Amino acid sequence: MRAGTIVAGGRSTRFGDSDKATAGLAGTPMIRRVADRLAEAVDELVVNCREDQVEAIEAALSDHNLDPTFALDEDPDQGPMAGIATGLGAVDSEYAAVVACDMPFVDPTFVDYLFERAASHEAAVPRPDEWFQTTQAVYHAEAMRTACRRALERGEHKVVEPLFDLDYVVVEREDVLEHTSLDTFKNLNTREEFEAAAERF
């Protein structure tokens, strides 16, 4: 069993007043595009979000074949690390792919590869440039959740911090490019980026 966790609880300040997770991208809510792609690589789906988002996200994911579980932020606005911890706390599988809700080009075959790389470790995290892509990575759900909670207790909010408590594998740029294109990591933050991406769908 493999889980997919979509992290959608952030407030998209650069996007304006509406929630970008459920914003239409070429006629389909962005989170639905992420869920549909992720579903090709996983057996269960968990969505981490705030309580005030549930209704709109439920509508966006209605009739999805994986029937998502919601993992709600008890204390919203604590950043992506808290969202990852909350989402991973709701999965049944040993390993989970974590993907941000604003990555509509996520490549399911690359997610498959990350699951393979994570096996017998506690995480497989891409590093296509100088930054780790922690919101398109595969984690041992319990180990990462515990590491996130420990980092938060230490007052750390950088989303790479929990990695240093884990036995993690780095998927470097050349390895990424052997399996996918960098589009898999493309995230949409502004209306202009949405419009450009919509033309591609």
Fold and architecture overview:
By secondary structure, this protein is an alpha/beta fold. The chain contains 7 helices and 9 strands. The protein has helices at about 30-40, 55-60, 80-90, 110-120, 140-155, 175-180, 190-200, and strands spanning about 1-5, 25, 30, 45-50, 70, 95-100, 125, 135-140, 170. The protein has a 7-stranded mixed β-sheet with strand order 5-4-1-6-8-7-9, with helices on both faces. Strands 2-3 form a two-stranded antiparallel ribbon. Strand 2 and strand 3 form a beta hairpin. The protein is globular and about 40 Å long. The model has no long low-confidence stretch (mean pLDDT about 95).
Characterize the largest beta sheet: strand count, sense, and whether it forms a barrel.
Answer: 7 strands, mixed
Instruction: Give the mean pLDDT.
Output: 94
Spatial gap, N to C terminus = 30 Å
Number of strands: 9
> Which range best describes the helical content: under 10%, 10-25%, 25-40%, 40-55%, 55-70% or over 70%?
25-40%
Shape label: globular
Quickly give the structural class.
alpha/beta
Q: What order do the strands of the largest sheet run in, or round the barrel if closed?
A: 5-4-1-6-8-7-9
Number of helices: 7
CA gyration radius, whole angstroms? 15 Å
SSE string, helix = H, strand = E?
A: EEEHEHEHEHEEHEHH
- Uncertain segments are none
Strand content: 15-25%
